[in-house]
Structures are given as C-alpha cells and as structure tokens.
Write a structure and sequence with these properties.
The complex is a heterodimer of chains A (702) and B (336).
Chain A (H helix, E strand, L loop, with lengths): L3 H19 L8 E2 L5 H7 L4 H11 L8 H7 L13 H14 L9 H12 L13 H13 L7 E2 L8 H10 L3 H4 L2 H8 L9 H11 L8 H8 L4 H13 L5 E2 L5 E12 L4 E8 L8 E3 L4 E3 L14 H7 L1 E4 L5 E5 L4 E5 L9 E3 L9 E6 L3 H10 L5 E3 L8 E7 L13 H4 L8 E5 L3 E3 L2 E3 L5 E6 L3 E5 L2 E5 L2 E6 L8 E7 L2 E8 L13 E8 L2 E4 L5 E2 L9 E4 L2 E4 L12 E4 L3 E6 L5 E4 L19 E4 L5 E8 L2 E6 L7 H4 L9 H15 L8 H20 L1
Parallel strand pairs in A: 1-2, 4-9, 17-23
Antiparallel strand pairs in A: 3-4, 4-5, 4-11, 6-7, 8-9, 10-11, 10-12, 12-14, 13-14, 15-18, 16-17, 18-21, 19-20, 19-22, 22-23, 24-25, 24-26, 24-27, 27-28, 29-32, 30-31, 30-33, 33-34
Chain B lengths: L4 H10 L6 H10 L2 H12 L1 E2 L1 H11 L10 H10 L3 E4 L5 E4 L3 E4 L6 E5 L4 H9 L19 E4 L3 H11 L2 E4 L1 H6 L5 H6 L12 E5 L4 E4 L12 E7 L2 E7 L5 E3 L2 H11 L6 E3 L4 E5 L6 H8 L7 E5 L2 E6 L4 H10 L6 E2 L1
Parallel strand pairs in B: 4-7, 13-17
Antiparallel strand pairs in B: 1-3, 2-3, 4-5, 5-6, 8-9, 8-10, 10-11, 11-12, 13-14, 14-16, 15-16
Classes of the chains: A alpha+beta (702), B alpha+beta (336).
C-alpha cells in the first residue's frame, strides 16, 4: 500500500490520466462514460493495483470507511482554483467495482452484489456499503454538473441513477453498457431501421433493443440479461436513446474504429452449376477515395464501393471472417464470420447476382450461403416455412460451404427448437416496426407532395395504427402503406403504430423561381489570352464571382467575368407565317418583301400546330413596322425598336424617288389610305406616313 | 390552342394534396418518371449520386430491372441543360439556374431549361402568354419539355425578366463559341498504365465499335489507339498515343482523337433539314452534346441506317454544326 506523499502524487497522476482517457474533450454532441474496467486500467498503467492503492490512501480510512472530510473538501475544487475535478479517481474506483459485477453474471445486478465487489477491492471485510458511501452521490452530481457545462467541452454526461438502487446506480450507469457493447449499438440501430433524427421514444428504442438482443448479436450475455431485466429498463433505454440521438450513422468495430462491411457477392452461371464469389468492401460517406490497408490500397469506384478484393482466399474469408484496418488506424473494413449468410438481389447496390444482407426479409427471393454443418437446420426451417429450396455445391464455392437457392420466407417467427444462433439471428422478425422506404425527400423527413414514401408497418400483436387524425385497428402482422396514394395535404404529419412514432412533412416546393444555390456546380473556362480554355472536363464546385476573363457554364446559364465577352448574336425578327409581309425600316428605302418559308419538319416533335404561326427573318436594317396583306386587306404591326434621331435624319432633302424608296413610300401610303395604323407606336407611324407623302410629292414634282 | 401539356404540368406542380384522387390518377398516367425526377432535383437543388440513384429507382417504380441505368438518365438530363453532374467528385449534382432561350428557326419557340421549381412553373402559368405549345417528351430519358410561344425576342426578354430568370437568345449558338477542342480535352489527361488482369478491347475506326484485343503472346507494347477495360464495377479507358504514352481519358474525347489520327469523318449534316448526324458508337462529349441538344430542346432521335445506329440532332444551324465538327477535328461536314 502506498502512503504519504508518494500515494498523493500517484493519485494525482491517476486522476489526470483517467480524465484524459475517459472524459476527453469530445466536442458538442459526444457522449462520455467513466466506464472503467480492469482492462482499461491496465492500458493506462500496469499493474492496476497501484490505482486502487492510490484511491484508498486518499479517500478511505484504514477501516475501509469513506473519508468524508476529504471528499467534501474536494467538492470545493473550483473554489480552490483547480482546473479539473480531483475526485474522478474515486468515482473510477466505484465504476471499476460495477464493471467487475459484469464478470460475475451469476451474482445479478443488485445493490448488495455491488458492495461485495467494492468491498473486495477495498480489502474490507464488512458487508453492505462502506460507512460514508452516501456522500458519493454529491460527488457524482458534481461531476455531472462539470460535464454538463458547455465550456468544459467534454461531451454530454451519461451519469444517471436507478430509482431503487440510488447510490450504486451512478457507477452502474457508467458501466452497464461497456465500450465493447456500445460499439455494437450502431448495428442494432441499422437492423431496427432507426435513425439519429427518427424521433423515436426511449420506450420504442428499448422495445426494438429487446427484440434484437439475442445470443449472437455481439453483445455480452450479461448486457443482454440487463436489457431484458425490467429493473434496469429506465437506465438502459435512456442510454440507448442518447446513443441513437448522437449516432453519426456509421458502424464501429470492436476497437471503436469506424467500420464498413465487406459484402459477399455470388454470381451464378450455368443454371447454378457454377458460381463466382466476390468480396466488395463498402465505401460509405466519410471513407477515403483510397483505402490504404498497408500492403495494398483499395480505390473507391464512386458508387459507394471499393474495388473488389483480389487474391482473397474465399474459404478462409468465409470460415474466419476478414478485417482490413486502415494504415492510419482510423477505419476498418470487416466481413463478420457467419455460418449462414442470407443473400438477396440488391438492385440499389449496383451489385449483380446475389449480395449478402443482414437479415432475411419476408417474401423476398432468397439465396443462402451455408456452412455444411448448418445445412440441415436451414432445410428444416425452410421446410417449416413451406418453402422448397435447392441445396447445391456449385463449382467455385469453397469447400465446406453450400448454396441454398429458390427459397422464400413468408412468415416471421421462431426458428425450430435447437436452432443455432447463426440461424436465429438472420430470421425475419415479426416485430413492431415502422420503417420508411423510398419517396422523394428534399431534406430529411420532408417529402414532396405526392411523392411520400411507402411505410412498412409491423405489429407483434394486435394494435392500432394512427395517421394524423385517422385511427385504424391492425391485426398482428405486416402491412405496407403507400402514403403517396393517400392524398396527404401539404403540411406536418404523424404516423404511429404501437410505441413507434414518426413525424414527417409534405411540401409542394420552394418559394423561388430560381433556387439560390442553383449553378454551384459548373464548367469553368479560364482566361488564356485570346480565348478562355476549359479548366477541367468535369463540372466543378464554384462559388463567388466569376474571375476576370473567365467563364462559367451551368446548364445553359453562362456567366462571363469582365472583360471577357461572348459572341453577341443578332436577334431575328419573327413574322406571322400565314401571310406575305413587307418589313420596313425608319429610313426611306429600308424595305423587304418576304414570303413565309416552308415549315421545319422537326417542329412536329413539339406540337403539330406550334410554330406554324411565326418564322424568323433577319434584315440588313433595323425593322420598324411590318405590313401584312391578305385577301381581306392589310394591317400594320410595330416591330423592333425605333432608333433615336433616325426620323430627324430622314428623308434626305431632294432625294430622288425611285427603286426601294418608291416601294417604301407606296407601301406606307397604300396602307394609310385604308386608315389602318399599328396599335402601338402610333406617332412613329404617322411620321413615316408624312415622310412617305413628302417623298411622293417631291418625287412627283420632279 | 393546346391546353394539355403545359397546363397538366402546371396543375401537377401546383397540387398541394387537395386534388381529387381521380384527377391525380389521370395525371400520373400522363407524367413521365423524369418529370418527377426533375421536379425533385429542382426543389432539392443539389445532392449526391446516391440520392439520385435512390430517387431514380423510386420514380421507376417496379421497373427498376428493365429501366436504363441511372447514369444514362443523368447524362441526358445533363445534355438538356437541367443539371450538372461532377463525376470526378463521385457524381454529386447541382441543378443549373433556369434559363429561357429562344430556339433559332423555331417560329418563336422559347425553351425553358435549368431548375424547374413549382414557383417557376406557377409564375409561367400566370404570365399572359397567348399560347403554350404542348409539353412534348424530350426523348426516352427526358422529362416533358416546357416550350413557350413567345413571338419575339422582346417578349422573351420581358417574360424572363418578369420571372426573374436569365434569357439568352439562341443559347446553343452562344455556347458553340465555348466548345473545347479534342486536343485541349486530352491535354491534361494523366498518365496511367493499363489495368492489369482484365480483358481489353480496342476501338476500331473501321468497325466503329469495340473489338476484342487479346494481349499478344510475349506481351509487348500496345499499338497506338483507344483501349477499354471492364474492371470491377466500372469501365476504364486508356489512350496509347503515337509517341507511346498511355493516358487515362474520357471515352468520347478519345474516340474523336483516334478518328482524327485516321482522318475519318463520322459526323454528317443535312443542311436542308438542319440535322446533325452522330454515330451511336461515337457519341458527342458532354458540352458538344449539350450544344446540339439545346438547338431544339430535344434529345437526339435514334435512327438506323444500313444496320448501324445513329443519333440525329434536330434544328442544328450551319454555324453550330460547323463549330461542333471543327472542335472535334472532323473537318468539313459531309452532307447526309
């Protein structure tokens, strides 16, 4: 046992190391646990006995009672100006005792059993709580306050307690889900179709957790027992819900590394006589384009996959599982060893043939990759389902494995007695579920009107389904509901079945003709002297103003940075197709008589009638008016823009009337005699009439 | 006056869930999957390739197996000017700003491309236009097109201003000014060796297609040409240059490069019909395809001639056809 200054120094070092290890700055959103175990202590310093000695020397008397004076003094650590709480080591000892309960599953989770472990650690002979133990409640609350202070940046506290076992509830709350089991929770979330913002209640999460937590799910047996134990229901459900709300959507391996699955893919040929096996590592969001596994590198294909693993011994991979760890140690790709691997046709994945899935889905065509020793029980199960299946051993399958094809499972429920966990873990669950599938969502839980998803409802026992104000009794079983067929009005909606509740919104669109962020991906042309040059063959993410002399093209929208310019096209005049026309400009002599050209055949693709009404023409002058004629007479329409000053310049005094000038004047005056004038630009027209009259009279004089 | 196409589209966009079920069902029969896809993209504005694939599968309903792959739909929506996909960034996409353009030689037809939000369609419906042509299907993978009979560039400009969107006269002819040349498209192609262990095929300019190209006994360097390899989950292309360099390249640009080497002309142009012909085996690079497509607002027609398939782009002006041919080193266009 350590005493005096040495022990004090030792405790301070332990306290600091424990805070660094278990309560690190996690940033907002992260959960922190003081989940101390003998293994984790050994990782810090070996041997861990010195830790217990150091805590005992500081906080316990030689009789094993709590040194309450020291504890109370340490609660004033802030007033003493200390940067970190000094009592974390003490609480860690309490958590260590709780974690050791896990190794004695037969002792059960009760207050008395906790004190057995604590007293053993303290070397105390007595039974029950050490004298003064109740003061530790204030210490836990003090730590909770510190963690809850955002300025500490330590992440969210998970300190809570049990309504009955108040004092031991605090340390147990920190170890009831040890790190290894917490890392399996994302697998549970995924299997249960839960999402971080799925609005699930603690009760709903617990309901699903109890269905999922079976032998073979990856949780320790004691954790499974605690999940099923009603005594720990509030604590378990609160922790699971908190973990769900902070889940980043990624899976973790047993060491806490972000993990992605390696998916087995079976391609059958020759009627199932031959098959090829591939192993495709997933490349989820956040994984690198190139996964450096040390001795080799995997490249992502852009469709959510890395390239298939080459040179993998299929038999060994299936028999033992596979784990590729990134060289930097941050991520891993894993194939879990399973004796029964359900395969389905996954159209969304882009994989051909049969791809591994986590669980059999009802009514889905199914293929199973089965270790030989499990074939009989799989056949028994499928037979009980009334599903005929063919067991084969195609060429290309590793020794010791068989393929079960042509299966389909039509009811959920239990596997035959004596079935292995390898089989039971993949069976479809007849459970209370509420999962959204598909739909066109513009953001999470926001769907376009008429494009709402399909909801798969499952009810373990008869109950009620509610959609907004509608209530519908449901027998036990499954049901798929097409929300898009229900004509849901724009707005907020709520659907529930049993304890499962989802809220979503329908909307018909955004309130903008041109979305603010449209065009943020564009082809970029950079300025290279005389002509802009395409910077890259692909559109790039762009923001801010266009560079000087550069261009950006998004769809048909082209933006030019000064002083670059684009070819400015002369815009044509559109004339009505049904009639001959005389187009006149503001200067005497500017006239062209046109006949409509034949109609372009391609316009039939748009409409049999559209485009018959206009055709385009370009003139060497700026047209002002068009005079149409048909059997009923003539009329005038203003076209183009009047040029300022043009009328003042024309007509040239003393100009000789003839040719185009004459035609121009005659055309204008001929229409004028019918008392027709354009509906707009009336004054301009009258001035042209006056000019034409003047020209005619001067020409006539000569 | 056609009351069908555009008004159906507008009615569907404006539905806030209050439409009678029978009307909704009739409308659903008329809608194309790509109308729904474009509406969703316009309202979502940007997203990932996974988003697009999931939405594509959704709008295809139970036809996923027979439907063309999502990437073909993506490419054609891109050609029509609705959206840009960045394949180099995993297929992330962003809709383009809405643009109203007056199609040349169309008798005053305006074509609306880019984002097509509910607000925009509703605002167009409220414009006092004399006539909305039918909303035609723009091709096998296109949505219904929105064409407006505008009558004059002045009207087009004022309608665009009223809608708060960009107006460009004959945008295809404007864009033709920006088309990159084949050599510039390959200038920065990175050196990359042949993928090992995969069967290779070579593009044959004589066959205008891919032919198996087994590795010669004893190995040896591959002759100049374009090669493709079906690797895991993707097709990769390598161009072996006459100097012996091997570069990773885009298929479309590289095909026109090898056609240039053999001085083979594959593009045709019918100046009377204003129609540009392109072999299916030598599809245009994306910007060139967009220029050709925006000449009419319609995807090319698939035609068969002497057992070979070709694409026909409508309403392509002499100038645009010449710019496409020139940038792809196709010389003077042969008349179809």
């Amino acid at each position: 046992m350590l005493t005096g200054m040495d022990a004090e120094m030792d405790y301070v070092a332990w306290n600091r190391a424990l805070i660094r290890r278990f309560l690190p700055p996690a940033g907002p959103g992260g959960l922190v646990y003081l989940s101390v175990s003998s293994d984790s202590l050994t990782e810090l310093v070996d041997p861990s006995d010195s830790f217990v000695d150091a805590v005992r020397a500081r906080y316990f008397t030689s009789e094993g009672a709590v040194n309450t004076a020291c504890v109370v003094a340490d609660l004033r650590w802030r007033a003493r100006g200390e940067p970190i709480p000094p009592y974390v080591g003490l609480l860690a000892l309490c958590a260590l005792a709780a974690s050791e309960m896990a190794t004695d599953g037969d002792l059960g989770v009760t207050g008395s059993n906790y004190y057995v472990r604590l007293n053993r650690l303290l070397g105390r002979d007595g039974v029950g709580a050490p004298p003064g133990f109740e003061v530790l409640r204030d210490v836990w609350c003090n730590l909770d306050d510190w963690l809850s202070d955002p300025s500490t940046g330590r992440g969210a506290s998970t300190i809570t307690t049990h309504p009955t076992f108040v004092h031991v509830g605090y340390p147990i709350s920190q170890t009831i889900f040890p790190a290894r089991d917490r890392r399996r929770l994302p697998d549970f979330f995924l299997a249960a179709g839960l999402e971080p913002s799925s609005d699930a209640s603690a009760q709903e999460v617990l309901h699903h957790l109890r269905r999922w937590a079976r032998p073979g799910c990856g949780l320790r047996e004691l954790t499974i027992a605690r999940i099923m134990d009603p005594a720990w229901e509030p604590m378990i459900s609160a922790i699971a819900l908190a973990e769900l709300q902070r889940w980043d959507g990624l899976l973790r391996d047993e060491r806490g590394r972000v993990r992605a699955d390696i998916v087995v893919n079976v391609l059958c040929a020759l009627g199932g006589l031959q098959c090829d096996l591939y192993f495709w590592p997933r490349c989820p969001e956040g994984f690198p384009e190139e996964f450096d596994a040390g001795s080799f590198t995997l490249k992502a294909d852009g469709d959510g996959w890395y390239q298939a693993l080459e040179g993998v011994a299929a038999a060994r991979a299936l028999d033992q599982g596979l784990s590729l760890v990134e060289k930097t140690g941050g991520r891993s790709l894993t194939l879990e060893r399973r004796a029964v691997v359900p395969l389905h046709q996954d159209l969304d994945s882009g994989l051909d043939g049969w791809a591994a899935t986590r669980r059999i889905r009802l009514h889905e065509p199914l293929c199973l990759l089965v270790e030989r020793s499990h074939v009989a029980e799989v056949e028994r199960y499928l037979s009980a389902q009334g599903s005929s299946a063919v067991v084969s051993k195609p060429v290309g399958l590793p020794p010791g494995w068989a393929l079960v094809r042509g299966a389909r499972v039509s009811t959920g429920g239990v596997a035959p007695a004596g079935s292995s966990s390898d089989l039971t873990r993949i069976l479809p669950r007849l459970d209370t579920t509420l999962a959204f599938d598909g739909g066109l969502s513009v953001s999470r839980w926001d769907y376009l009107v008429g494009e709402e998803p399909v909801v798969h409802l499952g009810l373990a026992e008869a109950g009620v389904m509610e959609l907004d104000d509608l209530t519908q009794p449901m027998a036990s079983g499954g049901l798929s509901l097409k929300l898009a067929d229900l004509g849901l009005a724009e707005g907020d909606h709520r659907i529930s079945v049993g304890p499962a509740v989802r809220r979503f919104r329908t909307l018909s669109g955004i309130e903008a003709c041109a979305p603010a962020f449209a065009g943020r991906q564009a082809f970029v042309f950079t300025n290279h002297g005389h002509a802009p040059r395409l910077a890259a063959l692909e559109p790039q993410a762009v923001d801010g103003p266009v560079g000087r002399g550069d261009r950006r093209l998004a769809g048909a929208d082209i933006r030019v940075g000064a002083p670059g310019s684009l070819l400015m096209l002369r815009e044509p005049i559109l004339l009505r197709r049904a009639h001959d026309a005389a187009v006149i400009g503001g200067v005497p002599g500017e006239i062209e008589v046109v006949t409509p050209p034949p109609r372009d055949a391609w316009l039939d693709r748009i409409s049999p009638t559209a485009g018959q009404q206009f055709y385009e023409a370009i003139f060497p002058f700026d047209p002002w008016f068009v005079i149409y004629r048909n059997v009923d007479g003539a009329w005038v329409e203003g076209i183009g823009e009047a040029r300022a000053g043009a009328l003042e310049d024309a007509p040239p005094r003393g100009a000789r009337l003839g040719g185009e000038q004459e035609l121009w004047s005659i055309s204008i005056l001929a229409v004028d005699t019918t008392h027709v004038s354009p509906p707009d630009r009336h004054a301009d027209w009258l001035r042209l009439v006056a000019i034409a009259a003047t020209l005619r009279s001067e020409g006539g004089d000569e | 006056m056609s009351v069908e196409g555009f008004y159906r589209l507008a009615w569907w966009y404006d539905d806030d869930g209050s439409a009678p079920e029978i009307e909704r069902r009739r409308l659903r029969d008329w809608l194309l999957p790509y109308d729904r896809l474009l509406r969703w993209m316009s309202e979502k504005v940007h997203g990932s390739w996974a988003d697009f694939r999931a939405a594509h599968a959704w709008v295809m309903g139970g036809d996923e197996i027979t439907a063309e792959p999502a990437w073909i739909a993506a490419r054609e929506l891109q050609d029509l000017g609705y959206v840009e996909f960045a394949w180099a960034e995993g297929g992330s996409w962003c809709v383009a700003p809405p643009v109203l353009t007056l199609l040349p030689s169309s008798g005053g037809l305006g074509y609306l491309t880019g984002a097509r939000t509910r607000s925009l369609i509703s605002a167009i419906k409220d414009c006092e236009l004399d006539f909305f042509p039918d909303a035609p299907e723009q091709g096998r993978h296109g949505p219904h097109g929105v064409f407006l009979l505008l009558g004059s560039p002045t009207t087009a400009g004022s309608v665009a201003a009223e809608l708060g969107i960009t107006y460009t006269f004959a945008v295809a002819e404007t864009l033709a000014d920006t088309l990159p040349s084949v050599s510039s498209m390959l200038a920065d192609a990175p050196a990359a060796p042949f993928p090992l262990g995969f069967e290779r095929e070579q593009f044959s300019v004589e066959e205008m297609g891919w032919v198996a190209c087994p590795v010669a006994a004893g190995g040896g360097e591959a002759p100049a040409g374009l090669y493709r390899f079906r690797t895991w989950g993707r097709v990769e292309h390598r161009l072996v240059t006459p100097m012996g360099g091997v570069v990773a390249c885009s298929r479309e640009a590289a095909i026109y490069e090898v056609l240039r080497w053999s001085e083979q002309q594959v593009l045709t142009y019918d100046s009377m019909a204003r129609c540009l012909g392109v072999p299916v085996a030598a599809r245009l690079p994306v910007l060139h395809a967009r220029v050709a497509t925006l000449s009419s607002g319609l995807l090319p027609r698939l035609v068969s001639r002497e057992g070979r398939y070709g694409l026909r782009y409508d309403n392509v002006s002499d100038e645009v056809a010449a710019a496409i041919a020139d940038s792809l080193a196709q010389g003077d266009l042969a008349d179809a």
